[in-house]
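From the pipeline queue, job 12 of 40. The input is one protein chain; the requested action is below.

Action: predict structure.
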Amino acid sequence: MSARPSLHLWDRVRRLAAMFGVRATSALKAALSAPANALIDTATHLPRRVQGIVRRDVSIGARFLPYEPDADAWVLPLSDGPPPGRALPVPPQELWLGYGRTPEEYLAKGKRDVDKMQEVLAKADVELAACPRILDLVARGPLADPDASAVVYLRAPLDPHPVTVSNDRLMGCIKAA
């Protein structure tokens, strides 16, 4: 039994090229150019694809707000909040998602939502100040209504079928973690 000699890759390409009547360099170039072209095409069209995704799902664009859009990099120092007597800035209007036409209207609707949240918390005998972390606040939900939805994720602003997680399931996940 004789051992068959191992062929170098280039020899294999030459043999295949001879079988199909093409030059070996042309065959190798064609074999390697398809994946390279696909990679270049993907990299070239990536910004356009990301923009398309952001346009379809408004919530993605609302999650990111560039600090200095024209800069290559930046560092944000830690802060204790706005100086005394100065309010936090209002986000750009394109991120308001219909919560008002003026900054005053936007802030008024936000205040209304916070007041409603405090009213609901008061019914469960919970003060917002007693929940310094969001997890503390979320964990109080099952006390008021264990069967209610704890998390409602809208994939679009007017999502007719949002993803929901009940209080019981959320607490199970928190305890498991």
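Job complete. The chain has two domains: 10-56, 93-176.
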